[in-house]
């Protein structure tokens, strides 16, 4: 297993750099880093600013902590590969104050109440002498600087410590208080609960002279000023705090082991941060302020640790820790890492509920904005709903099929048509069959070659299978119904205005009576397509000459409708003429005489503009 920490200096700017701009998604970027647990600092975004693929990568469980007040500032994130491990518990902040809704129960908390910094400092497990006032624990957890995840074998703390800032007393106190609370949180886990702890992140401090590019210069300057040994380097409080928190070379000191420096004790220029404004990375003129600190009990699991200065995209570089897949304890028993983590391959448990996958906007509880603008997706319907009411001729004594499919809107019954070779079979069908069989689209049948099928429109009535009284569709009936349909459409087009004409803006609007508008869609009409019966081919034969006459008649009617009206053309011409006519010169306000028009000829912004002055 590999644990990686990286200050990415903005999750939205990282994909703009090579090679990250060659990946199609944030999930691919996480995969390219080749780690199982990834801890990021300086996310510089908010919950609303995250995209879905960044907040919920498919291959990872993600946890975020954002600043409460400052948007686009600070922020940390921890991504855990779903096939490698699942955290047992997770919390935001160091003091347990930030709670989800509903708040954590006692079983969901990582520690007992007495192991949190408030009680640890109050009970004397940490130096509680605060000359400048009490600690504001809520304020210390409000900048989105810490995520705490419990993996069973260890507790992982992803932290982004405050930097030197603007050097004000307020920020200096905030930074010192934050370090005090961080140390108290670790002491509570180690001393009161006997847990193993891994602290990763940007601590914004150097732990040794070798970790700073100007460390030797600071020491030399201190010696010149009369200071002893390396006191010139340890002038800052944050460096002294970090040195006291770590295990010294002789085994004394604090509980945390700088595992990267322990594996590379004499390595120089092992820097993780550079000033990009002066292109200091090219010359490796930087500092080491990104760390992976572990407690002593995890040393047998350590396989390797190093920095990755070749990984670009930020002013920091990643630092990683590799753990063995299995170890042999003092009794000779083999302990597998996945067993120690409580991870079940193939059947992983759900992550803690502060994971981003349980956020309302990604868990299906809250609708996305794009759903209000996307196309409406409706389930397939077995019925057929006509878009407009259809005027049809009804047979006086036509039978109605018993098998009908009810449409979703409107009472339209459509019988299932069958092919010509199945005309002799019984056309009756039960309601169950009608609900299970797909309803085909009604088709107008033409005679192309060979025998044709007939289409019969019948009114609702009792079921009957006798076709003796059925009226057959002939060429004259088709011609007459088509003419009526065309005339009706022509009248509707004349009643319904299309594009507004220019002349309508200069004429008095006509009175319209809204009560005359009728909606034929409210009237429900039964429409039934019957199965064609066996009829004489001579009767159903459509006369081609009648079709030709009908086509010529319709063509002449459409040509007449396209001819513009003489009155409308004259009105439009007059309207355009009045609209485009040159502006008449106004009268002088003093003399009441027409003014004269002049044009500005002087070079400048008003050149070419026209104006009117008195003619006198």
TrEMBL record:
CDD domains: Ape2-like_AP-endo. InterPro entries: AP_endonuc_1, Endo/exonu/phosph_ase_sf, Endo/exonuclease/phosphatase, Znf_GRF. Its cofactor is Mg(2+); Mn(2+). The lineage of its organism: Eukaryota, Fungi, Dikarya, Basidiomycota, Agaricomycotina. This is DNA-(apurinic or apyrimidinic site) endonuclease 2. It holds the Pfam family Exo_endo_phos. It comes from Tricholomella constricta. Residues 374-533 are annotated as: Disordered. One of its GO terms (biological process) is base-excision repair. The record marks 316 as: Interaction with DNA substrate. Mg(2+) binds at residues 7, 42, 202, 204, 315-316.
